[in-house]
Amino acid sequence: MKHELEGIGDWRRTHTCGELRAADAGQQVTLMGWIHRSRDHGGVLFTDLRDRYGLTQVVFRPDTAGSQLLERASHLGNEFVVAVRGTVRPRPADATNSELATGTIEVDASELKVLSASDPLPFQVNEEHMLASEDLRLRYRYLDLRRPELAALLALRHRAAAAARGYLSGQGFLEIETPMLVRPTPEGARDYVVPSRVHHGNFYALPQSPQLYKQTLMISGCDRYFQLARCLRDEDLRADASPSIRRSTSR
After folding, report:
1. Three-class SS of residue 135?
2. Can you say how many angstroms the Cα of residue 143 is from the centroid of all Cα atoms in its chain?
3. Which helix (H) or strand (E) holds 28?
4. Angle at CA of residue 85, ends 80 and 144, nearest 5°
5. Model confidence pLDDT, tens digit, residues 143-188
6. DSSP per position, 193-225
7. Which tens digits make up the pLDDT trace of 64-79?
8. 28 domain residue, yes or no
9. Helical ranges in the chain per DSSP H
10. 8, 9, 114, 154: least surrounded by Cβ within 10 Å?
11. Is residue 199 exposed (0-12), middle (13-18) or buried (19+ Cβ within 10 Å)?
12. CA 35 to CA 50: how far, in whole Å?
């Protein structure tokens, strides 16, 4: 199946795949996302469309979509990127899914554009209980990060950082970035070093601690500052630690 990007400028996403509810029934909507999985129920094709906000069930029916569109939809594979237009319908009472935020509705598709076809994947993103090996998932990290569990962790990390910034800003703290390349200062762990292009044979060090600049900022009048800083130490990997440790510092 070829890409169908021509004319995509006429399409604009109206809702995310985690946004629609029963109150939206009857609306004409445009969704965009990945094909999570598809199911053919006797000529009616059910497709779960996924983005980082959630899942929405899209239905291709012969009487709504037409036989040609239904045929095209039947060739959609997992992780194809598509745009779908259709009408929001309430699901039958015996077909609702209480585990999904969008489980009371479905989108009755009338138009379809394939934005990007997908080659066979090294592992399936939608296999929640049969994860591929960690080595394989790290090799294809861009696929692993599509999994809802990891997408939720990224969002949680963002909210935690935003909450910290909001609270500290409300207390009169300034967020100030300090340099990442400094003169080496011997501490408890080995430095990560970066060779200097200008001064041959000399090296910069990646700081082990942002506290290096606290005193300078204090005497400059910044009595309250914070940063979410990367502290880099040349240490072996362990289950509870990594070379790059992100931490907040404040005074």
Report:
1. helix
2. 10
3. strand 28-41
4. 30
5. 999 998 899 999 999 999 999 999 999 999 999 988 888 777 776 6
6. EEE-SSSTT-EEEE-S-GGGGHHHHHHTT--SE
7. 777 889 999 999 999 9
8. yes
9. 62-65, 67-73, 134-139, 141-144, 148-170, 214-219
10. 9
11. exposed
12. 6
Q: In the 8-state DSSP scheme, what is residue 4? A: -
Give residue 32's identity as a one-letter amino acid code.
M
- Residue 135 to residues 86, 99, 122, 250: CA-CA distances in angstroms? 40, 31, 12, 37
Percent of the chain at pLDDT above 90? 58
How many Cβ atoms from other residues are within 10 Å of residue 36's Cβ?
A: 20
Spatial strand order of the sheet with 225-232 comes to 174-175, 225-232, 244-250
| pTM to 2 decimal places | 0.78
Cα separation, 31 vs 83, whole angstroms:
6
At residue 163, what is the residue type?
A
Helix (H, G, I), strand (E, B) or coil at 52: coil
The overall longest dimension of the chain from CA atoms, in Å, is: 75
Domain with 156, as residue range(s), is 123-170
Alpha-carbon separation of residue 250 from 39, 107, 113 (angstroms): 53, 49, 50
The answer to whether position 27 is within a domain reads yes
CATH at residue 193: 3.30.930.10
Could you tell me if 191 and 162 lie in one domain? no
Which tokens hold the place of 22? Answer: 């029963």
Residues 10-23: tens digit of each pLDDT? 789 999 999 999 99
* Residue 40, strand partner residues: 45
